[in-house]
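Comment thread on ticket #2218

A.B. wrote:
> Attaching the input chain for the structure job we discussed in standup.
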Amino acid sequence: MAQATRRPLSRERILAAGIAIADADGLDAVSMRRVGEQLGVEAMSLYRHVANKDDLLDGMVDDVIGAFPAPPIGGDWRDRLGAQVRGAHEVLVAHPWAPALATSRAAVGPGRLRFVDGVLGTLLSAGCSPQLAHDALHAVEVHVFAFTLQELHLRSTRGGYALDHLPAGAEAYPSLAVTLAEAQHDHRAEFDFVLELLMVGIDRAIDTTTR
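C.D. wrote:
> Ran it. Output below, let me know if you need it in another format.
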């Protein structure tokens, strides 16, 4: 019987293995040795495809961002931007280690560039000037990455929300107490609320700059 052909090692397989490890065990579990074990090769073999661990991490997070959905074609710009932003949020929630890594790395790969280009295309088609599109892009990225990062951080290990119950001494913060007593927490609703505020602000800025 012919021996089964081993799949050739590639950068794509290495990054996928790193992502699988991070998803299962957290980013701290990712190492060149662990990735090699996952792929059934010696760690030294990886260096033909990734320069070092920093290159591995940069590639992993860019692959995740590269999975953000492409901008829809046609329709109102608000619907297109909403689909891009919500899709990005869903991808990041599926990879809880990725938002912090994305906001701490200086490298910008093709996945990030495609996302940025897609958002800019939507904003320019809405009537934004290049300057307004530039500024709005930063607001969109803050919402996508920072909101998701905070959401993931504030979730308890039981899937709750860290501020759902007031700690001892909370009577010193009466506004917080009354708000938590009356309000309900819903991650998705809050994400959509801020997104809607963002789009209203962009729409207003377009009207102001085109008068």
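A.B. wrote:
> Thanks. Noting for the ticket: The CA atoms of residues 170 and 176 lie 8 Å apart.
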